[in-house]
Amino acid sequence: MATTRPVIRYEQTADRQVNQLQRNFQEALRAVLDAEWLFGTDVRDLTFTAGQTRSVDHGLGRVPKGFIVIDAQTAAPLLYQSNAGSYTVDITSTNAGTYSLRFY
C-alpha cells in the first residue's frame, strides 16, 4: 500500500502573528514532505541467494524512482536494480540474505 502526501492547509486569520506562524510551519513541513522516499511502498522479507536476480512487485503502479533497504535480517545488503517497470522491478543481490525494501 502506497503512502500519500498530506495536504498542508492554511487558514487566514485576523492575527498577523498566527498567519506568520502558519507560513513558517508550512515551509518547515514542506521541506520534510519533499523527501520522496517517505512516500512509497514497502516490500518485506525478500530472500535472495548470492548473485540471484528477482522480479519484485513494488506496488507503485508507476516506474519507481529508486529503492532503499529498510531492513537486512542476515547479510549486509548489496542490491542493485537492473530493470524497472510500472509493476515490477528486477533486483539483483550480490550477497545472500533476507531484506525489506521501500520503493519510491
Structural class: alpha+beta
Helix content: 10-25%
Overall, the morphology is: elongated
Give the end-to-end Cα distance, rounded to a whole number of Å.
12 Å
Strand order of the largest sheet: 1-6-3
Largest sheet: 3 strands, antiparallel
Textual characterization of the structure:
It is a single chain. With 104 residues, the chain is α+β, with helices and mostly antiparallel strands. The protein has 2 domains: 1-34, no CATH class; 40-103, no CATH class. It has one helix at 16-33, and strands spanning 41-48, 53-57, 67-72, 79-84, 88-93, 97-103. The strands form 2 sheets. The protein has a 3-stranded antiparallel β-sheet with strand order 1-6-3, with no helix packed on it. The relative contact order is 0.24. 17% of the residues lie in helices and 37% in strands. It is elongated and about 65 Å long.
Structural key phrases:
6 strands; 2 domains; 104 residues
Give a brief outline of the structure:
With 104 residues, the chain is an alpha+beta fold. Helix content is 17%, strand content 37%.
SSE layout and pairings?
Elements: H1 16-33, E1 41-48, E2 53-57, E3 67-72, E4 79-84, E5 88-93, E6 97-103
Antiparallel strand pairs: 1-6, 2-5, 3-6, 4-5
